[in-house]
Amino acid sequence: MKHFSPSQLGKRLAQLVLSLFILLAVTFVIGRVLPTDPVGSIVGELADPAAYAAMRERLGLNLPVYEQFFVYLWNLLHGDLGMAALTGNPVSSDLAQAFPATMELATLAIFISAFVGVPLGLAAALFRDTWIDQTARVVSLVGHSIPVFWLGIIGLLIFYAGLGWVGGPGRLDVYYEGLVPSVTGMLLVDSLLAGEKEIFFNALSHIALPAFMLAYSAMAYITRMTRSFTLEQLGQDYVIAARAKGVSPRRTLFRHILPNIAVQLVTVLAISYGALLEGAVVTEIVFSWPGIGQYMTSALLIGDVNAVTATTIVIGIVFMLLNFLSDIAYAVLDPRTREATS
């Protein structure tokens, strides 16, 4: 953290706290104005009026909205996100189980998309208007155009039902479930920590297809943006001067172009990672992946306001943290950012 003064870090933290407060306020108000009945989803539509009123008072819904909000903030500070009508468990407990599954899926997807998308975008820019560039454009266009759920269904039909190359829906085969102690909640990591190689490869076979399908749309975006950033740098005077001096294209790429587009790539990767965490909903439904997206969808279908609100807040916090980390990365990678904000 030597690149930051205390005032800079304090300013960024203050912005983060303010953004979090606004997110909580907006999400809470939206949750309260939705045409749903959280009391009815708990006690049932045919419940006794006295039981209905008692549950409404227990949930604090008899209070004015502003009082409900401050009570919600107080409970939130103590880790209480309310009870989920969907499962009957504390929402915090449900999210602690569901979020690692989504994080594992999105993290593998962002590694795949970055590993393929960045080199493909660089190659497309360096070999502009060649077959490499045309291929990259087609790949990006298809990735932006085809719905993820359709790709998922076709992928299951071909690679699981047809060829048998990957595992089916879910995170594990049934006979492996519960055999690995949950340490991080991410099966690939937990199975390695437990020394269960067989379970690791079974989990890998199940996550491979949804991760690739989820990564494809992000890869298309990363490829397109990397190509655009690189083309912009190729037209700069320093690149033209380096070529005139006889500097090899490889040296020009790794010593000059990549450092200059690093900050922009950090932004693209952070946005893509956040979008993968948020956009895993459809993928999780298609592949029966027990993550935060499937949890939120199930909660929406029954009008579980506590679960929906908490899930929205978690996703929003993830986006804000990614932006905060991006700001830190900017200052590390580009000294001009530190000078501009000092």
TrEMBL record:
Q: Which InterPro entries match?
A: BPD_transp_1_N (IPR045621), MetI-like (IPR000515), MetI-like_sf (IPR035906)
Q: Where do the ABC transmembrane type-1 domain residues begin and end?
A: 99-326
Which residues are listed as membrane-spanning? 12-34, 105-127, 148-167, 199-222, 261-287, 307-333
Q: Which GO terms describe its molecular function?
A: dipeptide transmembrane transporter activity
Q: Which GO terms describe its cellular component?
A: plasma membrane
Q: Looking at the record's lineage, which domain of life comes first?
A: Bacteria
Where would you find this protein in the cell? Cell membrane
Question: Which portions of this protein are annotated as coiled-coil regions?
Answer: none
The topology of this chain with respect to the membrane is: Multi-pass membrane protein
What UniProt keywords are attached to this protein's entry? Cell membrane, Membrane, Transmembrane, Transmembrane helix, Transport
SUPFAM superfamilies per the UniProt record, alphabetical: MetI-like
Q: List the PANTHER family.
A: D,D-DIPEPTIDE TRANSPORT SYSTEM PERMEASE PROTEIN DDPB-RELATED, DIPEPTIDE TRANSPORT SYSTEM PERMEASE PROTEIN DPPB-RELATED
Query: Family per UniProt?
Result: Belongs to the binding-protein-dependent transport system permease family.
Recorded protein name is Peptide/nickel transport system permease protein
What organism does this protein naturally occur in?
Consotaella salsifontis
